[in-house]
Write a structure and sequence with these properties.
single chain, 162 residues, alpha+beta, Nuclear Transport Factor 2, Chain: A, 2 domains, elongated
């Protein structure tokens, strides 16, 4: 069984040592993955401990705990990374965390900023990524124009009648 973060042979070998405090993540992405694992495994103390106290928002432990427990965590997808390596001081990880809550599937898409403080990566801030608007690839069909299905009827009397 792979780690809940989607990487590594098992959670015990991959994110487990971070969650137990035995090791510290060496990259911003490793911290992001371990924080996802912490949400999935309800390790709220780890989430609080890896939140930058100088970030724009204070971490709300009660909200984190509620979200962690009420969601069914289904997978993590890393979309992009910028910097955030072992020798960097700042980094960005764009990710999509898939979960379900109250019977609804959710794709939490965020660009997270991380910074290194005293050699330890911390989550600093994040911005939600809005879905790209749908762009029509064909011109709009007017109500009184011939239906594009080829029936010979006006659009409003054919496919536009639904």
């Amino acid at each position: 069984m792979t780690c809940v973060c989607g990487l590594g042979a098992s959670t015990e070998e991959c994110c487990g040592p971070f969650l137990k405090g035995e090791r510290k993540p060496e990259t911003a992405e490793a911290l992001m993955r371990s924080r996802y694992a912490a949400y999935a495994l309800e390790e709220v103390d780890y989430i609080v401990a890896t939140h930058d106290p100088e970030g724009p928002e204070k971490v709300d432990r009660d909200s984190v705990e509620k979200w962690s427990k009420e969601a069914t965590w289904e997978g993590l997808e890393i979309v992009a990374t910028e910097a955030g390596g072992p020798d960097d001081e700042r980094g960005m990880v764009e990710f999509i965390a898939h979960y379900s809550a109250d019977g609804h599937s959710v794709a939490h898409h965020e660009r997270s900023q991380f910074r290194k403080v005293d050699g330890q990566w911390l989550y600093h801030d994040g911005d939600m990524v809005k879905p790209k608007p749908v762009v029509r690839d064909k011109p709009k069909v007017g109500r009184n124009e011939p239906c594009p299905c080829g029936s010979g009827k006006k659009y409003k009397k054919c496919c536009g009648a639904a």
